[in-house]
Design goal:
The chain is mostly helical and 73 residues long. It has two helices and two strands, in the order E-E-H-H. The protein has a two-stranded antiparallel sheet. The chain is rod-shaped. The protein starts with a strand and ends in a 27-residue tail after the last helix.
Length: 73
Amino acid sequence: MMFSGLMVPRGILLPESVLASSWFSVLASFVAINTVIYLVLGIIKIIPVIRISTGQGRDRRSETRNIDPEASV
């Protein structure tokens, strides 16, 4: 890898033999899948809830809660 005319070794933190090992590939795959799962969960929390109103059930009040009970709804 060339950067400003300097040659930078590829395995700065770990030797290349560790980076090419199978257990490191499994660990990297686990981290990648875990990251995608948390990304999806975060996006789901941001998206607003879509509610389909049928006009019945919890969304409808049995009586008005207006200051003037005789007012039309």
